Amino acid sequence: MGESLSPRARQIVAAARDLLESEGADALTMRRLGERLGIRAPSLYKHLPNKAALEVALIADGFEEAAETFDAATSAAKEPLAALVNAYRAFVKRNPQLYRLMTERPLPRERLPAEVEHRAAAALVRAVGSPERARAAFAFIHGMVVLELNGRFPDDDGLEPAWRAGLAAFANPASIDALRGRSRDGAA
Amino acid sequence: MGESLSPRARQIVAAARDLLESEGADALTMRRLGERLGIRAPSLYKHLPNKAALEVALIADGFEEAAETFDAATSAAKEPLAALVNAYRAFVKRNPQLYRLMTERPLPRERLPAEVEHRAAAALVRAVGSPERARAAFAFIHGMVVLELNGRFPDDDGLEPAWRAGLAAFANPASIDALRGRSRDGAA
DNA sequence: GTCTATAGTGGGATAGAC
DNA sequence: GTCTATCCCACTATAGAC
Question: Taking a C-beta distance cutoff of 8 angstroms, is the pair B27, B67 a contact?
Fold first, then answer.
């Protein structure tokens, strides 16, 4: 993945990420990217074959970072789902435009490093216990962050209660008991 | 809303919707739209001030239709939440690109008919009983449909179980309200 | 590795004739 | 209400010199 890029290409991808986050997806053009780097747009093509490759690199980096932070947040957590949600929200808050890029279109899976998507999802499956519950929980989490990102919850006051409601709904029984301060032993 | 548009403008918006759904957002250009109607692009500006107005009209129509179908589906339903989810999924399946247009960016609320957004959301609030539960359920539903739309659930086999898991989670007040009002590090 | 020059495409929008 | 002609913009990408 990113390791297959030259050092100069890595610099370009880093600049692209800055540009993306600071000015949005529409501003991510080869001209503007060249500007940021103090070179002309055509020079970029000596380091990256085309713009699609640049976007793939951004997406791949995003998944790798997400997977790492999710793993780190949940590995030793007493409440893995809550910890994951915190890490997830933090990632989106740090990288809102990148998150959009990662999720708004079908993934170019064949051009991404193998397993990068699966690794990012693994922490969630671990946290909720089963793939179908993970899918449902993922939908809730993704829905919450994109709706917030898109200003679909005008009154931010209602946000935290909604997160609590969803967390409680998707926590497995043992987790609910843990949150209540009960023993897990009796959980089915 | 749409009623403030001339009949010809209404025809244009209808053609735009066809174009949007059949070829995607990138194909929705004034030139291509003119093609569909058998006229030149500049002629469109006699009926609509600019492209943004066209998109606003599309979004407004989408919300009106959604509100109507959601109302119709839930008004006499024994299981309002399940009925709403069915209607919601059907709307997205019929209008995937329009749904994207309606949800992927911050809403130009000041340019939409008043209450149109609220009306579309009202059925869900009725179905789940409280605004915060509605928000959480909305996030789940929206997350599910966009992730499906974006091919994020590669194996479609897992889709229906995920819907069932989510529905069950949000239909069970006990699980949702378990932590209601309680501050959690995982949520707050 | 960067440059200039440029091709090629496509977009939104306006002016003014008919 | 539609046309032609046109402007101005921006983009990706290539060729070839340095």
Answer: no
